[in-house]
Amino acid sequence: MKYRVHQQHVKIAMVYFGIAALLGILLRSYAIFSFDFNYRHMVHAHSHIALLGWIYVALTTILHYCFVKRDTVDKKYSYIFWSTQATLIGMLFTFPFQGYALFSIIFSTLFLMVSYVYVYHFWKNIDPKYKHSKGLQCVKAALIYMIISSLGPWALGAIMNTLGPQSIWYRLAIYFYLHFQYNGWMILALVGLFLFALEQRGTIVPNKSFQRFFWMLNVGVVLTFFLSSLWIEPSALIYLLAGLGALIQLFAFLFFWEIIKNEIINLSLSILQNLFIKTVMLLVLIKIVLQLLTSLPYFARMATIYLEFTIGYLHMTFLGVISIGLFFLMDYFGLFRISKKLYRLYFLGFLITEILIFYKGFSAWQQWAVFDGYTEVLALTSLLIPISLVLLLVKNRS
Question: What DSSP character marks residue 100?
C-alpha cells in the first residue's frame, strides 16, 4: 500500500514537471505569437512549479519512501503531502496573473511552513536501522540546506519594504535561495539517495573516506555561494573564495567517483540506469568547470552581461543534473518507469535547447548574427521535453 502511495506521488511530481515545461514553451513562444500575458509573472510561475512542484515533491517522496519506518502511520505524511499540493496549486493559479503579490506570497509562505513540517516529520520518523547510514548523513545535511535556503524568501519582504526591489540585496536574497536549493538541498539529497542505494546492496564506504568527501562537499557548497555575488564586482577576496569553493567541489566529486566507481556494479543496473549515472557525472563535471570559469573576473562579467549563459547553466543544472538524477532514482526504486525511447526524446530536447541557448550567448559575446528563425527553432525543439514527459506519464498510468 505504502509503495503504491509513493508511486502516485511521484506521478504527481511528473505532472508538475510537465506543467513547468509547458509554461516554458509559453515563455519561448512569447515573442513569436505576441501572447497577452505578463512575461515576468509567467517566469515566476514556471520557476516555482519546476523547483517546488517537480523537484521538491519528487525528492521528498523518494526520501520518505527510502528512510521512513515502514510501519509508521502515514496519516500525518498524507496531510503534509496534500497541504503541499494545495500551496503549489495556489502558486500555479496566482503567479501567472499577479507575480509577487498578496496571494502568491501567501501561498509561497504557506509552502515554506509546510516544508518545515515535512522536515520535522521526516527527522522524527527515520527508521532506526538507518541511523549509521552515510546516505542519511548527506540527506540530513540536504534538508538543513533546504531550511537555510528559505532565509532568502523570508528576507525578500523586509528588503522590498526597506530597500526596494532595485536594491542589490533583493537579487542577492534570490540568488541565496537558488544557490542553497540546487547546490545544497537538491544535489546533496541526490548524493545521499545514491549512497543509500549502494548501502542497501552491501557497499561499505570507509568512514574516513566518506567524512573527507562529506566535508569537502559542504565547504564547497558554502563557498560557491560567493559565485552568486560576483555580478556586483566585489573585492578580490570574494573572487578567491568563490574559485576555491568551485575547486573544492571538483575535488569532492572526483574523490566521490574514486570511492564508488568500483561499487556501482553491485547495483545491477540496466543499460539505461548506467546511462543516467554517466550522464549526471558528466554534467556535474561541466557544471563545476563553468563555476571555475565564472570565478574569474572576465567570465563573471560575461555571465552577468550575457544572460543566456546563466539561463543555460541553470537549465543544465535543473533539467540535466537534477532531473536526470531523479529519473535514475525513480526508475531504480521502481516508483516510475523511464522508457529508453522516451528518455532519448527528452534528452534530445534538453541537448538541442542547451546548445541553442549557449549559441545565442556566444553570438552576443562574439557579435555574431543569430540565424533567422532562431526563436521558432528554440520553441519547437523545446516541445520535445513536455511531449516526452506526457508520454512517460501515459506509459506509467496503471
Answer: S
Cell numbers describing residue 170: 533583493
Nearest to 319 by CA among 293, 354, 286, 285: 354
DSSP structural state of residue 126: B
Burial class (CB in 10 A: 0-12, 13-18, 19+), 242: buried
Paired residues of 126 in beta bridges: 68
Instruction: Sketch the domain layout of the chain as residue ranges.
Output: 1-131, 133-268, 269-398
Residues of the chain whose pLDDT is less than 70?
A: 1-2, 71-73, 398
Q: How many CA atoms lie within 13 A of 41 on its CB side?
A: 17
Q: Give me the torsion for CA of 305, 309, 311, 317, rounded to 10°.
A: -140
- Strand (E) or helix (H) holding 44: helix 39-48
> DSSP label at 179?
H
Q: Cα–Cα distances in Å, from 263 out to 161, 195, 202, 203, 329?
A: 53, 10, 9, 7, 17
Q: What are phi and psi of 68, to 5 degrees?
A: -85, 140
Give tens-digit pLDDT for 204-258: 888 899 999 999 999 999 999 999 998 888 899 999 999 999 999 999 999 999 8
Contact between residue 64 and residue 77 where contact means Cβ atoms under 8 Å apart: yes
Strand partners, 68: 126
Helix residue ranges per DSSP H, 125-167: 134-149, 151-162
CB 239 within 8 A of CB 230: yes
What are the pLDDT digits (tens) for 138-166? 999 999 999 999 999 998 878 877 877 77
